[in-house]
Amino acid sequence: MFNTGLLKFRDINDKYGHLTPIEGKIDVPFEIKRIYYITRVQEGVTRGFHSHRKLHQVLICLNGSVNIRLRNSNDEEVVQLNDPSIGLYIGPLIWREMFDFTEGSVLLVLASEYYDESDYIRNHDFYLEEARKRF
Ligand code: TYD
After folding, report:
1. Which residues are catalytically annotated?
2. Which of 17, 23, 32, 125 is the most buried (most CB within 10 A)?
3. Start and end of every Sugar 3,4-ketoisomerase QdtA cupin domain (predicted)?
């Protein structure tokens, strides 16, 4: 889908385990200003239900698996994240919902900007109006 995509990071794998390095502007297409992680999501819970006006993000499932539903005004797609060396890039004006978090799953998010509630679009009808202008 336009403005989204999977990124493959290096997986440095030796007898001591796996290590994945991620550098801003090199491995992800933006400077990383903020990270956050989502853990201990109860069964049956869906999160997200928003898009951002300007924010760029990369989602990485460090443990377990989680499904991400991506939507714009025309398309819908579900991506399953279950590999710590894969990132899902989500650019501006993409609606996202996160669901089916497995027990013990950890979702890491890298973000291009500091937290700013005014960058969120949480109303889906308003989102569709904005997305139709763009896509
Ligand atoms: P939200 O982005 O709505 O979570 P999700 O999309 O995963 O359902 O954020 C949930 C709450 O956490 C909301 O009250 C805003 C707050 N929050 C911060 O204070 N800082 C942050 O960096 C993020 C991502 C959220």
Report:
1. 50
2. 32
3. 4-130
